[in-house]
Amino acid sequence: MKKLLSMVVVASLGLNLQAQNDILDIVGHADCKDMLTIETRRTVGPTTAPQNYGEVLEFSGNERESVHFIEEEHHTVWYTFEAKTSADFKFELEPLDPNNDYDFALYQYTDEGFCEAVKNKEILPVRSNFARNNAKIDSRTGLRSSAQEELVAAGINPAYSKPLPVKAGQKYVLLVDNVYKEGKGHILHFDYVKPLLLGGLVQDIDSKEPLAADVFLVNVVTKDTLFQTNSDEDGIFANNFEIPLVQSKAPLLLHVKHPDYPLYRQRLDAIQILSLRKQPLVCELGQEAVTVVGDKRIVPDNRSFELEGKVVDDETNTPIQATVMITNTKTGEVIAETESDAETGEYKINVDVAEDAIKDPLHLEVYKDGYFFQDTIFKAYTIPQEAKKIRIDRRIPKLKKNAKFIAANILFHGGSPKPVNSSVSSIKVLFKLMKRNKKLRIKIDGHTNGCPDGKASSIRLSDARTMTVKDFLIKNGIDPDRIENEGFGCKYILYPVGGYRQHLNRRVEIKILDI
User: pLDDT tens across 122-135, in order?
Assistant: First the structure.
């Protein structure tokens, strides 16, 4: 149980800051023999523009209706990567200019003769999409779960192809071709997901009578609803969903709601769901609200646990002394505070949360003068009673001129400049950062999750989000001359729109102008 609990809390506290990606130079990788090795656990790009087809014309004079070969090679880049895990592989190619028309072909690599075999049409792609660019979706393309076809020909066809099941260690080659001359580059967003089926039975705990109820499955880390369904008159429910492999051990919370019963919740993870294939989940509703962890029914009460970990410099990985503080975001009360050891970076802190505050969001903050902050939000009632020791290591980046940081927990409601409730504490931490560093000047960059109402509207919304943060800082005494702001709309999306991490696109980033 302790092992499960460690995974639950670490996953809940595992949001990391990411710096804005630099421009990736892809010039010189237009031929298969010069393929560029990339990593697929992260976003790649933005890139420079593909210039031409290189020294070798691998494709020419093919039929327009072909699903295996592009009709003519135009402006290409060849990428190669190794599958890092066994799962369904997805990606999205986002053109920097939506007027560009990008096509792709994905191959499984064979051996040293691969490039020659591709040119001679002896190897076929396992996935392709040569469809005409669709301006309504900003000309994006890639592999998406909702797609029906593995290979897509040129013309007015679906912009996405089906995900590809891959195994860890397999090597692949991705050919990307921009039809238009003097085009712009692109960004590649990657995902590994595991498709799962969760089914079960809802019944009364005493009579065992089946119940028709609302059933939700929520990712505790991202707060995303993975599916929403209903049990039928026989109490039976079943639903397909998918979860990213990086979160396969993340806690999931099954909610069962019935108008005549208190709320029922059951804690699960992807590994547990796989074990339920032969035995359906049984959800028994009774007279009190409960959370089920494993085979234990837990009624919320007070929580006491020990938090320990290590704080290191993000760049050098050396231990540093920093302040670790836990605050009740509802009351503003500092529940616990300590400092990590200057030589080892280790810290230990005892946390006691009263019964009437176990559902209040707790704010974990790690900070040090001259460094950007690390923080996150969690709730004590999500930590089952058996938990005694939780370990959370933290990496914090130094403040450097022109460095850019994603304020991971400053997020906003969809279509609104209003921050989500949990973001208020993070905005306050940004204020404390400005207050501690008197010479610090920043620029707040705002972003949106796509441009559903057009780019102009998206830019206005992202600018309004920066003003929300800027106004808070100014009203609390920060000199306006120390703050600049700009809205970028949907220009720099980090994660696919509609994906499980899309809420992280509704963000602000902090650029250090001067220290």
Answer: 999 999 999 999 98
